[in-house]
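The record is given unchanged here:
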Amino acid sequence: MKFISIVIFTFISQFSFAQSIFGKDAIIEKSLSERWELDDEDKNGTFKLTFYKPIYVLPARWSSNPNELPQSENPDNSFTEAQNYDQVEAKFQLSLKTKLLQSFLFGHGDLWLGYTQLANWQVYNDPVSRPFRELNYEPEVIVNFPMKINLLGIDLRMAGFGFNHQSNGRDLPRSRSWNRLMFHAAFEKDNFQLYLKPWIRIESPDKDDNPAISDFIGRMEANFIYNLNKHSVNLIGKNSLDFDKNRGSLELNYFYSVKSNLRLHFQAFTGYGETLIDYNHKQTTLGIGVSFIDW
């Protein structure tokens, strides 16, 4: 009942306010070239902050199975006492990128710096003083090459590789982190875009906060984006690529534009690794809120 009440209040208040203040407007759609400055007419130089992944606030996020006893295959990173977590919390994400070098590597590549921060906040949990349950920090360096290759009627618009670090910046037993060498290719056709991102984990020679993380969160991500009028869908699938123990996750984001970059945002997640502390914990979550900008 608590989650339902929060959802109803959030949806009605945000939708009514947005419609009364802003009126009607179509969703802003950006091509891959506009997002990543692929074509000459879309290039904006270096050290200009732009948006990367979705920026959103979900005041109400419900979990079917809160991770009250986080565990790791490394016993030093395993909780011994259960935490009193609510099923309902808030979740928000901030994500930006900037170009460090333009048209390097014989004039064909761009070097980007990206940063994403994800927060899960037990804001309604007064008995434990409303803590941030998990904060994930994700800086990355990306080398990107613009392309124009037609493959079976779909355009391959860019490809590249990068170094990705993700951690929660906590001490034991909460500490979680990993490093990845990531590859990417992005395709585009009319109103849809598709990103494919396989990666190789870089093992730590000293210690491992989360052994077998690739067997749970996965070794590859597929990100599908589709825009239609005022509606936008973002589907993210991750998979371990292990046929014996096939694990991963699926996340659905639905956006409804109420004014340009202001959107109502519904999110559904199922599987492993919604956050790093949950890397080997399976749950289904539902969230509702707003997305602020076009990404």
Notes: Residues 52 and 96 are 5 Å apart (CA to CA). The chain has one domain: 2-291.
